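Slide 14.
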Amino acid sequence: MTVKRLCYIVMLTAILFVQEEALTFIPNVQLTFFLIVVYGATIGIVDGSLVVIVHVLLDNLIMGSFTFYVIAPMLIGYEIALILGYLLRNKSEFYLALGAGIAGFIYSMIFWGSTVIFFKVDPVVYIIQDIPFELVLITCNVITVLFLYKPIKKLILEHYPKKKLIELY
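Slide 15: predicted structure.
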């Protein structure tokens, strides 16, 4: 790994982290899934996974939720978004937006399972109360990908250092 590539990974991680913290006052409105989908489509699974892992660890340290039942669902959910971005990178924004919406839904369902298992919460009550928040998250994911994907992808691809062919890209 080159120093330049490492610096870009750090910068992309900082952007991901700062935007999420800046938008925490609005429940489930964030650019996190959008950026992770773009990272999957542009920098690939290996570098994108580094961004996701560091982001999840930092986020949980700052928010005081550094526990397995929070970190594991976040990692799984974000990695799914990253992989969907990678797999759909050559498709239209519509398919990427659909993938981001699906990733948001899967993320919510993983947290649902974690909450029900570890906190012994009534699953039906949790689902009913979580529906508005899920709809906001999914809608935010879809809209941001539809409107911001092309310019941000172009910006990243113009500046991100090219990798060797042997790596996942």
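Speaker note: The mean pLDDT is 92.
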